[in-house]
Amino acid sequence: MTKRTRWMAAQLGQRLKAARLAAGQRQRQVAAAVRVRVATVSAIERGKRLPSVEVLWDLAGSLRVSVADLLPAHDPDDVSDGPTTEEGATP
């Protein structure tokens, strides 16, 4: 994972865990609702794995939050993967 991807995974994991705890659910309950292994939910919460779009959608639905609630709002400058071109695209 790149530095930026690690940051995104960590942010998503923290938000997922907070939403799960707010919903009063255990990882095994979320895993069963989404049809994934408990280890998958744990890895996502620890920022070690990014979920597929389908799993992200199902996680949000099972916790009654929006997908946007689980995603970081923006990428701070200090986690960029490197310099960008004049057009703003990463080379």
Q: What does this entry show, briefly?
A:
The chain is mainly alpha-helical. The chain has five helices and no strands.
Indicate the topology.
Blueprint: H1 3-22, H2 27-34, H3 38-45, H4 53-63, H5 67-70
Helix pairs in contact: 2-3, 2-4
Largest sheet: none
The end-to-end distance, rounded to whole angstroms, is 17 Å
Task: Give the count of structural domains.
Answer: 1
Number of strands: 0
Mean pLDDT reading: 88
Strand content: under 5%
Helix percent reads 55-70%
Question: For the CA atoms, what is the radius of gyration?
Answer: 15 Å
CATH architecture assignment name: Orthogonal Bundle
What is the class in the CATH system? Mainly Alpha
Describe the global form.
globular
Q: Could you spell the SSE succession in H and E letters?
A: HHHHH
| Uncertain parts | 83-91
Which structural category fits the helices and strands? mainly alpha
Number of helices: 5
What is the assigned CATH homologous superfamily? lambda repressor-like DNA-binding domains
CATH topology-level fold name:
434 Repressor (Amino-terminal Domain)
| Oligomeric grouping of the chains | single chain
